[in-house]
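Collaborator request, handled under Task 6.
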Amino acid sequence: MAEDVFARGGSAASTEEVARLAGVGIATVFRHFPTKRALLEAVLVKHFDHLCERAQGLAGSDEPGPAFFEFFGHLVDDAAGKLAIIEAFTDAGGDAEGQAGRRPRDLREAVGVLLARAQEAGAVRADVRLEEVYALLVGVARAGAHLQLDAHVRARTVGIVFDGLAAREGDERRPVQ
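Structure tokens returned to the collaborator:
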């Protein structure tokens, strides 16, 4: 609930709206989260935890290639809301020192696991490193959010990136270290 409010409204979203949608008074919200920053940190941590859980669930897939590409596409589609929450957290005085600070690293590691499995299965080019994949992911995700690309254009853009990441005939299956 709070996640949706801040994903839609960013810094302009109010704790009063969170309370109203939760069916509680503002005092109840502030009893659990004494500041807007504390509420936003909890929302951000929960958001990253859900993303990591989803990646971990996909890591056990019998089809690692589609699992990797599905998660990459999900992260691009999710970017606008996540970025709005991060912006609101930063605007409220949040920083990378708290609980929210390590979550992006956890997500990056989860993407790394999916990438390695997809490479081992021969679905993703073996010569691609996590740094490169993450740069593509962040670039496409931020561009889609910033330019407010519609779903069709975003899907075509992601498809072009996927074409570049896909393994080619004769590629080695071993990921580059």
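The cover message to the collaborator said: "The longest helix spans residues 64-91. The chain has a mean pLDDT of 91. Please let us know whether this matches your experimental observations."
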